[in-house]
Amino acid sequence: MPSTIIGPELTIQGDLTSEDDVRIEGRVEGRVTTRGAVEVGPGGEVTSEVTGRTVNVAGTVAASVSASERVDLLAGGRLVGDVKAPRLTIADGATFRGKVDMDG
Amino acid sequence: MAKTSIIGPGSVVIGDIAGGGDLEIAGRVQGDVEVDGAVHVDTSGVVLGSIRAQEIRIAGRVEGDANASGSLVLHAGANVHGDLSAARLGIEEGARVRGSVRTVGAEPSEDEGPLPPDEIAPESEPDAPEGHDRRRRDRRRRRSGGPGAPPPAVPVVRGTPSPLEPARRDTAPREAGPREAARRQAAVPREVSATPNGPPRVPLAVPEAAARPPQVERGGPPAPVVPALLKGARGRRRPSREHD
Known about the structure:
The complex is a heterodimer of chains A (about 100) and B (about 240). Chain A contains no helices and 15 strands. In chain A, about 40% of the residues are buried. Chain A has strands at about 5, 10-20, 20-25, 25-30, 30-35, 35-40, 45, 50-55, 60, 65-75, 80, 85, 85-90, 95, 100. Chain B is elongated. Strand 2 (about 10-20) of chain A pairs antiparallel with strand 2 (about 10-20) of chain B, so a sheet runs across the interface.
């Protein structure tokens, strides 16, 4: 259970930084940076860079994603931005446009 | 049902938070918070900014104002530097507060006198001068006990005078003086008797108007009592109307 949850009706006009897991079901108009896991739920939206240990996208991320372990773009997810992670999955039904760098 | 959002103890938000649902802040927020639900600042929570919500409970640190439309409670362990306002306030023993503390209720404040009889009249001044008539509208709403303005006794078509109300000049300031007072006196019983569109309104408008002497107009001379008009005004045009 993530320690930080941004509910579906909430909007953060700014950056969110955390030490723990984060789940976004609302909107973050800024960066999300954490040392833990980032989950962007189906209605969630992040308009700026996402950085975490692992990043799950079932909603929308409109900027680059960077993870130290893995990035998973789930069905229904939409990612418009570059991905930098050692492991990546893009599910059938996801939308992706950007560059991928798995070698860093 | 809106979900509860949580800013966990290890999280920092640099920016404003706005939206719906409840919010629990156990981390740090450097910005303003405005939600339509409840905000709970935990003992580990820090908010450097204002908080505005339906219900606010503070057990942590807040550097900014807190405004609740419902209840606002400071628990032991709270440390608030800012102004507090709410309909219902509570401060537990052990809470620390520095700033003004004020309850803003739904009840009329004491400086407003008893309402003059024409408060029952339907609103037909969409562009009325703001301060004065807004108070009238607010008091009319409170008087009838509903959250919004009560429906008029007759349909009011904007731009055309309603059959019972005189043709009001929207831009003209509120008239003071005997003519206005007579108009108001006469308007009340007509409202009660001729209600084609709904149940008769507030029957106590008539005894109130008769029993209570007319109140001093803001900025005008006291209105005279005109009992003859009260009796004979039912369903009839007021004599002063032709002179408007």
